[in-house]
Amino acid sequence: MAGWSTLPEELLDEISEHIETRSDIIRFRSVCSSWRSAVPPLRRKLPPRFPILPNNGVSDFTRGFCLSKRTVYILSLPHYPRILTDPPQRGSSWLIKAKQDGSRGMSLLNPLSSDGLGPLPMGCPKTLDSSRFRVSELACEFVLRYVTCPPLVWEPIINALNVYMEKVAFMCLNSTDFALLTIHVSGKLAVYKYGDKMWSIISDMPYPYDDVIRFKNKFYAVDGHGRIVSVELDLNLIKIAEPIHGGDKKFLVESLGELLLADMYLSVYAYYEGPEDVEPDETNSIMMERTVKFKVYRLDSDKQEWAEVMDLGDRVLFLGEDCTFSASSSDLGICKGNCIFFTGDFYYSNGNQDDTFNGRDIGVFDMASGRIGSLDDYIGYSELFWPPPKWITTGSSEVEEKIESLVL
């Protein structure tokens, strides 16, 4: 049998076309010199600034948009998992989101939001030894932020205006060209293709859109009534399946090569902070939304319909503010899957007191029971998030691979 280094160049080219993550590129290029020459270390450089997205004068304060990439990693002990049938080892994995801040280096964020994390605990290494940790890329997100002029004067205003931007779907067209799909403040879809001088707003909008995604190298979007369309680069919309009615916010998630729709159900509650002897009412309370349940559907593209999913098996869905992704419970080192992690306001039952308000936090929806709980309600779930596990802080002096090298 021929060695790996003697594989035909055309086969290496074909394999390299299917490599998407920075970490996989590094591993591919590390095999041997012939593999290293088949794939460049950096495939493309994004332009520093994008045209202003029209939004009825809101962008008058800006010079354009800056596109930044953030990557979600899972760090785990190298010996785990040994065998898939072995019971999970609690605290064996850690989820982080890394954002490159240009010359300022890298910062860590909450994997499901844009919230920054606290300073690293004492003893936590700033570089990671790949002989001691397994580093795998779970997902990446692209975020458009306003470029201001002058930055110091308009910074507070522009930060407030960032709420108008939804998440961005990014698609490579070739080694240099790319396309972006996002949701305009009006609820319409907006498309930008490399080299365009302006964004293209698609006027077709029976209902405002909720989410966008790149799936199998195509753009998809879903509106608030569950109408899903494929978004062609010529700006045509093709209906993929009949709408799903019922929930209040739709999320598109890829899981094991299938496109899923997570339908979030919300209810309205009155948020009150005041004297206990005053009865809350609409005059002294703020009406807010809380998450009460989810339903999940799988896209059957042949039948052009959604099929409800009652059981996710060992899969876990993550519904973040700027990206969605999935993972197996074995990779995450948790006891069970079949659940959904999300951010938002929610109530939960802790066994002693029902309807306990948790405020805005990471919640867990159990598909089997239909129950929403906090991370602490499930063994091993809270250890996935901040702060880092103790085994991270027992650093090694020899560094094989820096996590910064995994961030574009």
Explain what you see:
This protein is mostly beta strands. The protein contains 5 helices and 21 strands. It has helices at residues 9-16, 22-29, 33-38, 151-161, 329-332; strands at 62-76, 93-100, 106-109, 134-148, 169-172, 178-183, 189-193, 200-202, 209-215, 218-223, 228-231, 237-241, 249-255, 258-271, 286-300, 305-309, 315-319, 324-328, 339-348, 356-366, 371-374. The longest helix is centred in the middle third of the chain and has 11 residues, at 151-161.
What's this, in brief?
Helix content is 9%, strand content 39%. The chain has five helices and 21 strands. The model is unreliable at 55-59, 80-85, 151-164, 349-353 and 395-408 (pLDDT under 50).
Uncertain spans: 55-59, 80-85, 151-164, 349-353, 395-408
Number of helices: 5
**What is the makeup of the main sheet?**
5 strands, mixed
Question: Strand portion, in percent?
Answer: 35-45%
Using the alpha-carbon principal axes, give the shape: globular
- Whole-number mean pLDDT: 77
Radius of gyration: 23 Å
Helix content: under 10%
Distance between the termini: 36 Å
| Structural classification | mainly beta
User: Order of helices and strands, N to C?
Assistant: HHHEEEEHEEEEEEEEEEEEEEHEEE
- The count of β-strands is 21
Question: What is the spatial order of strands in the main beta sheet?
Answer: 18-17-19-20-21
SSE layout:
Blueprint: H1 9-16, H2 22-29, H3 33-38, E1 62-76, E2 93-100, E3 106-109, E4 134-148, H4 151-161, E5 169-172, E6 178-183, E7 189-193, E8 200-202, E9 209-215, E10 218-223, E11 228-231, E12 237-241, E13 249-255, E14 258-271, E15 286-300, E16 305-309, E17 315-319, E18 324-328, H5 329-332, E19 339-348, E20 356-366, E21 371-374
Parallel strand pairs: 17-19
Antiparallel strand pairs: 1-2, 1-4, 2-3, 5-6, 6-7, 7-8, 9-10, 10-11, 11-12, 13-14, 14-15, 15-16, 17-18, 19-20, 20-21
